[in-house]
Amino acid sequence: MLPTFTWIFSKWKTRVLVLEFAVLLFCILQNQEVKALPPVIRIGAIFTQDQKDSSMDFAFKYAVYRLNKDRTVLPNTTLVYDIQYVPRDDSFRTSKRVCRQLQNGVQALFGPSDALLGPHVQSICEALDVPHMESRLDLELNSKEFSVNLYPSQKLLNAAFKDVIRFLNWTKVAIVYEEDNGLFKLQELVKTPPTLKTEMYIRHANPSTYRNVLREIRQKEIFNLIIDTSTTHISQFFRAMLQLQMNDYRYHYLFTSFDIETFDLEDFKYNSVNMTAFRIVNLEDRKVVDLLEQMERFQTLGHNILNRSGIIQAEPALMYDSVHVLAAGLALLDKSSVIKTSNLSCDLEVPWRDGLSLYNYINTININGLTGRIEFKEGKRDNFKLDLLKLKREELRKVGHWTPAEGINITDRSAFYETSTNNVTLIVMTREEKPYVMVKNDANLTGNAMFEGFCIDLLKSIAAQVGFHFVLRLVPDHTYGVYDHETKEWNGIVKELMDKKADLAVASMTINYARESVIDFTKPFMNLGIGILFKVPTSQPTRLFSFMNPLAVEIWLYVLAAYLLVSFTLFVMARFSPYEWSNPHPCLAESPIVENQFSVSNSFWFITGTFLRQGSGLNPKATSTRIVGAIWWFFTLIIIASYTANLAAFLTVERMITPIENAEDLAGQTEISYGTLESGSTMTFFRDSMIDTYKKMWRYMENKKPSVFVSTYKEGIDRVLEGNYAFLMESTMLDYIVQRNCNLTQIGGLLDSKGYGIATPMGSPWRDKISLAILELQEKGEIQMMYDKWWKHNRGQDQESCNRNDKTNKESKANALDVDNIGGVFVVLLCGLAIAIMVAIFEFCYNSKKTMRSDCTSPNPQAQSLCVEMTDELCFALKCRGSRQKPALRRKCPNCNTRATHMNLGLDLAPPPRPNSATGRSQRESICDIPPPPAPLYRSVMQHYLNTGPDDFDLDTT
């Protein structure tokens, strides 16, 4: 015993143990029974030899020292510790040391932190009912008897890591672990990733292979890493990062260690590298800060509890709290029961009688320590809080916290994408699309100089206003991004942003719900909707007889049939009615001759004249025929009025053949195909729409073979120009195309309303800055000027523009009539004149033949030839200045008496031949039978005829 006391007294810091040991010896000599807690309680600790004089070793000693000094928790009891240092991985010697401590009356054991030695110590404590206070990572999920572990379980830690990954929306993650059990620690994270789309790349590394592993990760373009390495080798890992230049804002490192604050991060400050880790020490509690300051002041030469000024590692903090947990359990036991210490033997395996009571009281405590709130459930840490730290510019800051009950709670979202606006270069993803982004046809240009367009001008203005540089890159798969329900993955620009391969996306990218759920959008810089692009309807070919278009062919046929029917009806009824027969010679009242003016030709002439709104000189007399005429007049009134009204529309307004007018027309037919841009927001709109018309259109587009979807706008435009295809596209792009191709037009209105925005990764700090810049540019009118520059003016690669000013409101504006519209009327007129001339010639020839002149006074009268007769008649007709009177010619009437001769006065004195109902002969034949008038009467008539003239001569009156 003397050497032992000499060793104790040689350590000045353990002088307090002398007094405690004296009190214990005094109680034993007096053979006095101790009530409740004994005045001295021995506790043991097992540390590995490499932990001797470490921060964990001194944290344990300082905790015992502080409890014995303050006397607030255990006012009547002094703790005496027994520390044994054992070789690492030597379980046999460790077991021996533990048994020796128990024989010396140790009532609780602390440590070791080694993963192999800990279970051996735990089995001994469990056999002897001794509380085992641990502060190490235990990978076993099952609870252990008499084990009290302050270190959070790996299952809960994996849940915390999952929540962080889910919040950061990591889809491609590399896990780098160093220890052999590192993969076993993170197996829960690997087996069940945060999301189904998360891809894990796992690599084992040590200080000699850090560079090779990181180089592989960089080549695979993985920018999100989970680092599970030893804190003693972290400096070498940092060196490998710097050598491979993996320390910019694109990379994000999530460390599994709680000691990120103890790392030297000087080389990673001010370059926007993302470093994130959890912290278990509650530095927000003022009591904790004061305690750490006291620890710092308590340090002596070579005895460092804190890693550096104001910072304590997780393991020493957990060891310090475990000592206070045991003291709190003893304090609860002191209030309710009596505890008796005893010397235990590993050989006898007789358990400690009060061990179970002490263990149960420890499980019920609820105190605050260096690591926050301390509670237990079956010996495992429960209801704790982890602070989430993020390297933000020059220092580590708390940006959130995690609890098992609430999960992740981010208080500073912008910290995860913190970038410095000074000389920062952002990667901007885009897609080639006129006139938003176009590649110049110049092989000498490289970099950003290769691109031009509306989005490029907009990006330059925003970059100058916000303060950053940018590098443009085209998206590899040439798509904007759509979610595939089968593969559960995004593609296009959205995927690039989700994988953090780009900082911004500037293109004609539509803001919708699906994209907004995985990435962020700025304020829209352009509003638009979905329109229908279609080939310009062909104008109806102008026909010569287009004046007949106002009435359908069927109506013209019905009018013709009505014309014939009414004409024959009038003829029959006129002959049937007695009131249509009249005496042609009113002076001869007893004349047996009556006539009817409605012959077949006159009936048709009357109907024709009234149909054309002209007089015919014939008037019906009978009531029945007048009814027929009135009804026909009413019919012609409606037909002519309708024709005239519709003729103005057909001849003054250009008629277009438009097979479709809107989306409903498209959905209701199958002759014209229609489709959208593949993997675009327009396709997503129809796929997710709940409107019946759009759902029907989506079913058609989805099932149509060959596919109606196109990969580029150019392909869709070409299909529209080929005919029988309608392209559903966004209105802004549609306006640009229509402005430059007169063969294309927009059909109907917009199907929806949405906007274009600049896309950023989730939680990016650039979103708000760019949104403010967009609002300012809109208020100044600069965005409108950019729009006019690329849409209305001839800029960029497309120098041809279609001038549509003269075609505006074409269907509502009357045009002047030309020959193509009403030329048929002139044709009808010319044809009618030609027919009339041919009929006149026929009549002339026929009459000349009938009235050939003969010389009746000659001894041998002979008929004049037809040619001579026609020549004489033609010569007289062609005398333009000749008399209106035709000279009297001597005629020979073959049907009259050779003695009956008369002068042809230019007017036939006899009435026209009319049929006689009584005799069946013509009136001329009857007159020929009348003897010639006496000579005085004949001379009187001739004299009157010559005085009045042929126009005013009335034979009946004379």
Automatic annotation (TrEMBL):
InterPro entries: ANF_lig-bd_rcpt, Glu/Gly-bd, Iono_Glu_rcpt_met, Ionotropic_Glu_rcpt, Iontro_rcpt_C, Peripla_BP_I. The record marks I660 as: Crucial to convey clamshell closure to channel opening. It holds the Pfam family Lig_chan-Glu_bd. Disulfide bonds join C742-C802. It is a multi-pass membrane protein. Residues 904-926 are annotated as: Disordered. Residues 435-499 form the Ionotropic glutamate receptor L-glutamate and glycine-binding domain. It is found in: Postsynaptic cell membrane; Presynaptic cell membrane. Residues 425-793 form the Ionotropic glutamate receptor C-terminal domain. Gene3D superfamilies: 1.10.287.70, 3.40.50.2300, Periplasmic binding protein-like II. Keywords: Cell membrane, Cell projection, Disulfide bond, Glycoprotein, Ion channel, Ion transport, Ligand-gated ion channel, Membrane, Postsynaptic cell membrane, Receptor, Signal, Synapse, Transmembrane, Transmembrane helix, Transport. Signal peptide: none annotated. One of its GO terms (cellular component) is postsynaptic membrane. It comes from the Eukaryota. The chain crosses the membrane at residues 555-574, 630-651, 822-845. GO terms for molecular function: ligand-gated monoatomic ion channel activity; signaling receptor activity. Coiled coil: none annotated. L-glutamate binds at T510, R515, S681, T682, E730. The record marks R687 as: Interaction with the cone snail toxin Con-ikot-ikot. PANTHER family: IONOTROPIC GLUTAMATE RECEPTOR. Belongs to the glutamate-gated ion channel (TC 1.A.10.1) family. This is Ionotropic receptor 7. The gene is IR7.
